[in-house]
Write a structure and sequence with these properties.
The protein is α/β, with parallel strands linked by helices. The protein has a domain at 179-248 and 364-545: Glucose Oxidase, domain 3, CATH 3.30.560. It has 17 helices and 24 strands. Strands 1, 2, 3, 11, 12, 13, 14 and 24 form an 8-stranded mixed β-sheet that branches. The protein has a 6-stranded antiparallel β-sheet with strand order 9-18-19-20-17-23, with helices on one face. Helix 7 (154-160) links the parallel strand 7 and strand 8 (175-179). Helix 1 runs parallel beside helix 17. It is globular and about 75 Å long. Bound molecules: flavin-adenine dinucleotide. Flavin-adenine dinucleotide binds at residues 15-21, 38-41, 64, 99-100, 102-103, 106-108, 110-114, 274-275, 323-326, 328, 332, 549-550, 582-583, 593-596, 598. Flavin-adenine dinucleotide (FAD) binds at residues 15-21, 38-41, 64, 99-100, 102-103, 106-108, 110-114, 274-275, 323-326, 328, 332, 549-550, 582-583, 593-596, 598.
Length: 628
C-alpha cells in the first residue's frame, strides 16, 4: 500500500482527542505550538439521534449505544469461565460490553459528565513515589483552576472577585460545571421524598448528627468538590456536579472546536484516522505516527466498515504523544514494539524497547446497582419518550430545565467504609431516576423503558486490585486487544476488604431505602432482591454483577523495575520524545471519577511539554529531587 506523507511538519503529533489528548492538544495549540491531532472517530453531528444523544444530558446512555460513536469492547471480568458465566451481562466467548466512544472528544462525548476531581492524596502519592513535588496536590490545584468555570456556587463566584474564595474552585476555565439537577425538577413529590429521606436517614446514622450537619453546611452544602483548606476530603450527602453549560453537554469537543477556530494554523484535527504505529528515528526517538485513513476501520466499532483504509505518515519535529485511552494506548505501544518483549515476539513484532509494564496494572472501580420499582412513575418524567421533540425535550431545549437537563443523578452519598485502604472516603453512591444495571448490548433501553424505577449505583473507589491486563489479540492494528480485569479473588491482595466495603455499602443503602419501602413509595427492591440477605449472598451478588467504567493505569508512571512505563514527566522509559497523556498514565486509579483527574493531568502535561520545548526545567520552580 502506498504511503501518503503529510506535507507539513508539526511540532507535536497527538493520538486521541479524548479527556487527555483533546485537552493537551487545545492547550499546546493555544500556546503557539503546531499540533496534528489524530482521532480514529469522526464528529458525526448529522447521524441518527445526533446531536441530541450527546448534547442532552439525560440521553448519555443513548450516546453510549449510538452506532455513530460506539467502540464496543468486550472485556473479561474473570478468567474463570465458571465465575464469568454467572454475570448476566456476559456474552459467552466474547466478554462483557465495555463501551468507549471513538469521536472528537473521546469518551467525554458519551460519558455521564460527572466532574469530581480526585482526592489530594492521589496527587501526593505520585509526588511521593516519583520524588517530583510538582505532582503535589497544592501544585495540581492550579490546573483545576485553569480548567473549571464553576457555575454551581453563585455566592462564592461573586465573592471570589473580592479575593474571597475558600472553595478551591476554578471560575474562569474552559469547562463549565453545573449541578446535575436543574431546580425545575424539585416539584416532584417522590423525588423530594427520596432526597429528604436520604438526607434524614444518613444524618440519623451519624455519631454526632448536629456537628456533622454544621460541618456539611460550612463545607459547601453538598458540593463534593469544595476544598476548604484543612477541611479534609468531602464526606456526606452531595449533589453531582456535571460538565454542562446551560444543562447541555459541553467539554473537550467544544474546547477543541473553539481552539481550532481561534488558531486554525496551529491545530489540525485529522478525523477518521486510526494510528497504527509510532515511527522512530535512527536514534530510537519517536519521530512520527503511521495511521490509516478511513471511517469505522477499527473492529471494536459498532458497525466496522471492513475496509483497510489508506496508509499515511505524519512527522513530529518535537514529540509524539499517545492519548488513546487505557485500552488503546498500550495496544499502540505494543504494535510499535514497545512492551513486554516476549509478548511482542509471540506476535511477530520487532522489539524496540522491552517494557514489561505496558498493558499491565489495569485498574477500575467496582460498581453494582440496587434497583427498585417505585409505586408510581416519577412526575418529572411524565411525557418522556426520550427523543427530540417530546415535551421534556421541548422544555430542555427552551430553558435547559427539566429532567433532560440532568444525567439522572438525584442525590449522592460520599462515605468511608470500614474496609477502606486509606484515610480518604472510598464509596460513592448515587440515586438515579432510572433502571441501570451496568453495560450490556441494549442497556440504554432499560433507561427509556421505565419511568418508575430508582437505581442506587454503588461505586467503590480506591480499589486495591492491580491485576488487570490489556494484551494484544494479534499484530493487526484493526483488532481490539484482549482485556481482563481479574476481579476480586483473581486479583492482587485486598479482594476481601474491597468486597467487605461493597457489602457494607449495600447494607447502608438498604437502611436508607427501608423507610421508603415501609411507607409504600418504593414498591419493590428488584436487585439484588429481598431474598439476598446474608453477607455471603450479597458478596456473591457483587462478584456476579460488578462492573466498572473508568479503566485506567495500563502505562503507569513509575520505575521500570516496578512495572512503570513513564517517568514523572510522562515520557516513556527508554524512548525519547514519546509521552503518554491519558487514563493509562496513573499508577493508581484516582478519586471517584476519572475525567477531571485526566483533564488536570493533561494541563500539567502541557506545562511539562512546553517547558521541555523551551529548555526550562520540567517541574514547578520549587521542585527538588526527592525533596518532599
Ligand atoms: C459510559 C461511560 C460513562 C462515563 N462517565 C464518566 C463520568 O460521568 N465522569 C467521569 O469522570 N468519567 C466518566 N467516564 C470515564 C471517562 O470518560 C474516561 O475514563 C475518559 O474519557 C478517558 O479519557 P482518555 O483520554 O484516557 O480516553 P478517551 O476519552 O477514551 O479518549 C481516547 C480517544 O482516542 C481515540 N483513539 C484511540 N485509539 C486510537 C488510535 N489508534 N488512533 C486514533 N485515535 C485513537 C479514541 O477514538 C478516543 O477518541 C465514563 C466512561 C464511560 C465509558
Amino acid at each position: 500500500m502506498a504511503v501518503v506523507e503529510t506535507a507539513l511538519d508539526w511540532d507535536y503529533v497527538i493520538v486521541g482527542s479524548g479527556a487527555g489528548g483533546g485537552v493537551l492538544a487545545a492547550r499546546l495549540a493555544e500556546e503557539g505550538m503546531r499540533v496534528f491531532l489524530i482521532e480514529a472517530g469522526g464528529d458525526p453531528q448529522a447521524a441518527q439521534r445526533m446531536p441530541d444523544d450527546c448534547e442532552v444530558p439525560a440521553f448519555h446512555a443513548f450516546a453510549c449505544e449510538n452506532p455513530a460513536l460506539a467502540w464496543d469492547f468486550y472485556a473479561r471480568r474473570y478468567s474463570s469461565e465458571a465465575q464469568q458465566a454467572r454475570d448476566p451481562k456476559y456474552r459467552p466467548g466474547q466478554g462483557v460490553l465495555y463501551p468507549r466512544a471513538a469521536a472528537l472528544g473521546g469518551c467525554t462525548v458519551h460519558n455521564a459528565m460527572i466532574f469530581m476531581p480526585p482526592h489530594d492524596a492521589d496527587w501526593n502519592e505520585i509526588a511521593r513515589m516519583t520524588g517530583d513535588v510538582s505532582w503535589r496536590a497544592e501544585h495540581m490545584r492550579r490546573y483545576l483552576q485553569r480548567i473549571e468555570n464553576c457555575g454551581h456556587r453563585p455566592v462564592w463566584r461573586a465573592l471570589h472577585h473580592l479575593g474571597l474564595d475558600p472553595t478551591g474552585h476554578g471560575w474562569n476555565g474552559w469547562l463549565r460545571t453545573e449541578k446535575s439537577m436543574p431546580l425545575s425538577v424539585v416539584r416532584d413529590d417522590g423525588l423530594m421524598r427520596l432526597v429528604l429521606g436520604t438526607v434524614g436517614g444518613f444524618t440519623r446514622r451519624l455519631p454526632t448528627p448536629l456537628l456533622s450537619a454544621w460541618r456539611w453546611l460550612r463545607n459547601g452544602l453538598g458540593d463534593p468538590n469544595s476544598r476548604r483548606r484543612g477541611g479534609g476530603s468531602f464526606e456526606g450527602i452531595c449533589y453531582t456536579p456535571l460538565s454542562t453549560e446551560g444543562h447541555r453537554r459541553s467539554a473537550v469537543r467544544e474546547r477543541l472546536l473553539d481552539v481550532a477556530r481561534r488558531f486554525p494554523q496551529n491545530l489540525h484535527i485529522e478525523l477518521d484516522a486510526l494510528a497504527t504505529r509510532v515511527l522512530f528515528d535512527a536514534q530510537g526517538g519517536a519521530s512520527g505516527v503511521e495511521y490509516l485513513k478511513g471511517a469505522r476501520l477499527y473492529r471494536a466499532h459498532a458497525s466496522p466498515s471492513g475496509q483497510a483504509g489508506s496508509r499515511h505518515e505524519v512527522h513530529a519535529q518535537r514529540e509524539v504523544i499517545l492519548c488513546g485511552g487505557a485500552f488503546n494506548t498500550p495496544q499502540l505501544l505494543m504494535l510499535s514494539g514497545v512492551g513486554p518483549a516476549r509478548e511482542l515476539r509471540a506476535h511477530g513484532i520487532g522489539v524496540q524497547v522491552d517494557l514489561p509494564g505496558v498493558g499491565r496494572n489495569l485498574q477500575d472501580r467496582y460498581e453494582v446497582a440496587l434497583t427498585h420499582r417505585m409505586s408510581r412513575p416519577w412526575e418529572v418524567l411524565a411525557g418522556a419518550r426520550w427523543e427530540r421533540g417530546d415535551p421534556l425535550w421541548q422544555q430542555w431545549h427552551a430553558t435547559g430545565g427539566g429532567m433532560y437537563g440532568s444525567n439522572g443523578a438525584a442525590v449522592g452519598v460520599v462515605s468511608r467504609s470500614g474496609a477502606a485502604a486509606t484515610p480518604e472516603p472510598d464509596l460513592f453512591c448515587m440515586a438515579l431516576l432510572a433502571r441501570f444495571e451496568g453495560y450490556f448490548p441494549g442497556f440504554s433501553r432499560l433507561i427509556s423503558g421505565y419511568d418508575d424505577h430508582l437505581s442506587w449505583a454503588v461505586l467503590k473507589g480506591r480499589t486495591r486490585n492491580r491485576a488487570g491486563t490489556v494484551r494484544l489479540r494479534s499484530a493487526d492494528p484493526l483488532d481490539p486487544p484482549l482485556i481482563d480485569f481479574a476481579q476480586f479473588e483473581e486479583g492482587t491482595p485486598g479482594a476481601q476488604e474491597d468486597m467487605r466495603a461493597m457489602v457494607e455499602a449495600i447494607r447502608s443503602l438498604r437502611a436508607l431505602t427501608a423507610p421508603l419501602i415501609e411507607s409504600g413509595w418504593i414498591a419493590q427492591e428488584l436487585q439484588p432482591g429481598p431474598h439476598v440477605q446474608s453477607d455471603e449472598a450479597l458478596a456473591q451478588f457483587v462478584r456476579d454483577t460488578a462492573w466498572g467504567h473508568h479503566a485506567s493505569c495500563t502505562c503507569p508512571i513509575g520505575p521500570k523495575g516496578q512495572g512503570g512505563v513513564l517517568d514523572s514527566t510522562l515520557l516513556v522509559h527508554g524512548v525519547s520524545r514519546l509521552r503518554v497523556v491519558d487514563a493509562s498514565a496513573f499508577p493508581r486509579i484516582p478519586g471517584f471519577f476519572v475525567a477531571a483527574a485526566i483533564f488536570m493531568l493533561a494541563e500539567k502535561a502541557a506545562d511539562m511539554v512546553l517547558a521541555a520545548a523551551h529548555g526550562t526545567p520540567t517541574s514547578v520552580s520549587d521542585t527538588r529531587p526527592g525533596g518532599l
